[in-house]
Fold this sequence. Notes:
Blueprint: E1 2-9, H1 15-24, E2 29-35, H2 38-45, E3 62-69, H3 74-84, E4 95-102
Antiparallel strand pairs: 1-3, 1-4, 2-3
Helix pairs in contact: 1-3
Amino acid sequence: MTYLVAIVLHDVEHLEDILSSLLELGVEDAVTVDAEPMKKALAYKVPIFAGLKFDLKEEPFTKIILAVTENKDAGEQLAVFLKSMGIDISQPGVARILTLKLESALGEPESLGEI
């Protein structure tokens, strides 16, 4: 069975810690994507919300990390691993980790040795 671990990282200063933690857990098939938080999009791009004050951070982007693994517990293991490093994802504004069962995963990722 193949799973997708999706990490919505709001506090991007933890990116390096999360990527290295994924490697420690044996997860190598991952990508990162810059994303704009909904609050920021509403505040700056939707006229009806433009006048509202949101508590927006200096960092303009959220990072999305998508990782494919056969370990169904990888998301939970990652959360425990991060907590041991002092990164508590249960705190608001840090991160969310989602694990989804995939119906299919086609293709082979580039190995880290080839990068």
